[in-house]
Amino acid sequence: MSHMPQQTASPGTRDSLTARLLACGLVVGPLFVVVVLVQAVTREGFDLTYHPISLLSLGERGWIQIADFVVAGLLCVAFAVGVRRMLGRGRGGTWGPRLIALTGMGMIMAGVFTSDPGAGFPPGAPAGAPASMSWHGILHEVGFAVVSLSWLAACFVLLRRFAALKRRAWVAACVLAPVAVVVLVAWPDLDGLSVRLVVASAMQFEFLFALAADLLRSRQERESRGAYSLGR
Question: How many domains is the chain partitioned into structurally?
């Protein structure tokens, strides 16, 4: 029996794929937030200071926000693969990427399973909270919980890595970002809660953006050192 030669990706191809996967971490936050804000000012009856962004998944143009959740989730999962490739078997290299991927899966879940109408949106919905939650409304909330908890856990897993590397700025970021997000979400005043949730989401995405930028910079430095060595 003849054996077919195995084809393996060249180092350059692998590095290029890793860069594209890491770039997903740069794209996901701006894309998600911009789509939300555009809808917030164009959807009739929607008030960002009162309505949670999950309600944008309902109504005639609800598919836009559903797609926003799902695409953002897929980008997070792709980014997690890039993080895994960069961190390898080092500290945080296993659970850090897994938790980032779980964050993306939670976003996909929150998109596929829509929330229940309420607070007068979409137009014609009950003015207050729904009398009872549907099965898909419950699963939507579960998806939101998965996003929140997995992102928080990822921050503290990465905290251990950056502490070992003595990168103080990142250590501070891994502590302060989760604290700020928890304070925004858990603040007892319900007025402005929807705005605080958007700000908290933006902060979560900003953390991923900064992580992606840092890893891309590290990758470029490795390439530069490798090219310098070959040149010598």
Answer: 1
Distance CA 180, CA 161 (A): 21
Q: Is residue 148 part of a domain?
A: yes
Cα–Cα distance for residue pair 129/144, rounded to 1 Å: 18
The 8-class DSSP code of residue 54 comes to G
Q: Is the pLDDT of residue 121 over 60?
A: yes
CB 34 within 8 A of CB 111: no
Token pair 């944008």: residue = 56
Q: Which residue has the higher pLDDT, 96 or 226?
A: 96
pLDDT at residue 217 greater than cutoff 60: yes
Confidence of residue 191 (pLDDT cuts 50, 70, 90): confident
- On whether residue 6 sits in a domain, the answer given is no
Question: Which residue bears the tokens 């399973």?
Answer: 113
Tokens of 50: 């009162």
